[in-house]
């Protein structure tokens, strides 16, 4: 018996292999980022956050420490849970002015340090 694959079957197999490779690549230990929870391809950790993000972030801080990384959709996000670390980070001008992440803005309601806009244009003065 000969084995034939249709174009559709080959396409499905290729997509399945790509999803598995991307999943393992994204969830492998990457030394550029702090440790964090495992994520889902394309969605990241969004589904794990749920309706009470502060509780989930605190749980992750207890598990991974004051600096950990998560994925918001396809974007890596580093979370700081220690106010001293936040102050240190925002005291350097090269760490400010990063582009906003719409998912982070939605979850935090625009009230996070990274998503809040300063009235006078200089949020760093208020933090430091």
From TrEMBL:
| Highest taxon of source | Eukaryota
What UniProt keywords are attached to this protein's entry?
Answer: Iron, Membrane, Metal-binding, Monooxygenase, Oxidoreductase, Transmembrane, Transmembrane helix
Segments spanning the bilayer are: 6-24
Entry-linked Pfam families:
p450
Question: What InterPro entries would the database entry show?
Answer: Cyt_P450, Cyt_P450_sf, Cytochrome_P450_fung
Q: Which GO terms describe its molecular function?
A: heme binding; iron ion binding; monooxygenase activity; oxidoreductase activity, acting on paired donors, with incorporation or reduction of molecular oxygen
Q: What Gene3D superfamilies does this protein map onto?
A: Cytochrome P450 (1.10.630.10)
Family assignment from sequence similarity: Belongs to the cytochrome P450 family.
PANTHER family linked: CYTOCHROME P450 MONOOXYGENASE ALNH-RELATED, P450, PUTATIVE (EUROFUNG)-RELATED-RELATED
User: By what name is this protein known?
Assistant: Cytochrome P450 83A1
């Amino acid at each position: 018996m000969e084995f034939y694959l249709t174009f559709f079957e080959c396409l499905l197999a290729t997509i399945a292999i790509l999803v598995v490779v991307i999943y393992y690549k994204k969830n492998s230990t990457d030394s550029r980022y702090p440790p964090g929870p495992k994520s889902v391809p394309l969605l990241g950790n969004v589904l794990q956050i749920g309706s009470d993000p502060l509780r989930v972030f605190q749980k992750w801080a207890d598990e991974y420490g004051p600096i950990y990384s998560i994925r918001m959709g396809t974007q890596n996000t580093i979370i700081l849970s220690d106010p001293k670390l936040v102050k240190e980070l925002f005291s350097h001008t090269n760490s400010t002015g990063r582009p906003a992440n719409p998912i982070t803005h939605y979850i935090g309601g625009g009230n996070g340090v990274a998503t809040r806009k300063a009235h006078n244009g200089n949020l760093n003065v208020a933090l430091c």
